[in-house]
Amino acid sequence: MSEYYQVHPENPQPRVINQAVKVLLAGGVIVYPTDSTYALGCHIGDKAALDRIRRIRQLSSKHNFTLVCADLSSLSSYAQVTNTAYRILKAYTPGPYTFILKATPEVPRRLMHPKRKTIGLRVPDHPVAQAILEGMGEPIMSTSLILPDQDQLVDPYEMRMKLGKLVDLIIDGGACGLDPTTMVDLVEGVPQLIRQGKGDPDPFR
């Protein structure tokens, strides 16, 4: 059974954050709150943990995984960012947006889209997610917590019932929304709206 902790959504207890970091570094899979939905996360370099997330969500090889970053300073290590793209990123992060960009060689190939060689990048505006990222000192691999039957879990107690044997740690940070991030493709330099979610889509139409 997974570990389960309740945290204050604005001022998460350091001991819980430290435990989340410990689990991630040990190759575990966690459930954590973001500014859109709850998400599944693992260490960027751990193939076994990534494979577990693929099985939980029954994802195809074409799924665009997302690197969740603390801020924009680390983006250039993982994505090719043009001046135009950087201005957009600076204007809309942190926030409930995922931006698709060309990946750099720093990104493990298993995280990229197999044909386009792209990666999703996002900077969440949520104290719990930010505290985990600060503790890690690097991005984490992440994807929205949506089960194969399209069941969107919003109640952490229900998550515990359904995922207790599939993940290593569940962080209960209270209610999150039902809407995923708004997804914007910046590969060609001109923003292209891919998915309308919580973030305002109007600037990208």
Outline:
The protein has helices at 14-25, 47-57, 75-78, 83-92, 127-136, 156-163, and strands at residues 3-6, 30-33, 38-43, 66-68, 97-102, 118-122, 140-144, 169-172, 182-185, 192-195.
Helix content: 25-40%
Query: Which CATH class is shown?
Result: Alpha Beta
Low-confidence stretches: none
**Which percent band covers the strand fraction?**
15-25%
Characteristic key phrases:
single chain; 205 residues; alpha/beta; DHBP synthase; 27% helix
3D structure, described in words:
The chain is α/β, with parallel strands linked by helices and 205 residues long. It has a single domain, classed as DHBP synthase, CATH 3.90.870.10. Helix content is 27%, strand content 22%. It is built from 6 helices and 10 strands. The chain has helices at residues 14-25, 47-57, 75-78, 83-92, 127-136, 156-163, and strands spanning 3-6, 30-33, 38-43, 66-68, 97-102, 118-122, 140-144, 169-172, 182-185, 192-195. A 10-stranded mixed sheet has the order 1-8-2-3-7-4-6-5-9-10, with helices on both faces. A hairpin with a 6-residue loop joins strand 9 (182-185) and strand 10. Helix 1 (14-25) packs across helix 5 (127-136). The mean pLDDT is 92.
